[in-house]
Amino acid sequence: MRHRSILSISSFIASLLLSTAAIAAAARPCPDPAYWQFDFWVGTWDVTTPDGKTAGWNRIEKDSEGCALVEHWTGARGGSGTSLNFYEASTRRWNQIWVDNEGAVLRLSGGLHEGRMVLSGTSSSNAARQRITWTPLDGGRVRQHWETSDDGGRTWKTAFDGTYSPRPSSRTMM
Questions:
Q1: The domain containing residue 27 runs over which residues?
Q2: Which CATH number fits the domain that encloses residue 156?
Q3: pLDDT truncated to tens, each residue of the chain (174 aa)?
Q4: Does residue 172 lie in a domain region?
Q5: Which pTM does this prediction carry?
Q6: Which of 39, 47, 91, 118 is packed most tightly, with the most Cβ within 10 A?
Q7: 70 Cβ partners below 8 Å, 6+ apart?
């Protein structure tokens, strides 16, 4: 009899826990796992060029209850910018809207392809096509490869190639 009571109580607790988890998942405003595809970019970063020089510092934060990412860039040569990154369920695409301290605006859209986030679009400052690819690397690092095309996407030139390394928590952003 005692064994049945323990089994009944265990079953009740398991059901309660599963129900609570289902309610919590349903209450989340952006429950689709697609909203988490770009989470590998979340963090505070030191950004370097392929030759090891400091390009700048970046902080990427989740915002709007996890439905968006906000980027805060500070370049080593004084430039800065902010982007809003979000998954749009109706189009099943990721979007980025970037604005820098000189008023240039970049609008990109795309998605996750073979583990890399690839967004492309146009800039307000020139007619060239823009494509940026973020690739997760070993050690929690991320590569950002920004390319431009002046011929409608037939050929691409590197505009920026940076490696994001997690910033030690004891340092502050410049």
A1: 1-31
A2: 2.40.128.20
A3: 555 554 455 454 445 344 444 444 456 789 999 999 999 999 999 999 999 999 999 999 999 999 999 999 999 999 999 999 999 999 999 999 999 999 999 999 999 999 999 999 998 878 899 999 999 999 999 999 999 999 999 999 999 999 999 998 744 444
A4: no
A5: 0.81
A6: 47
A7: 60, 61, 63, 82, 83, 84, 85
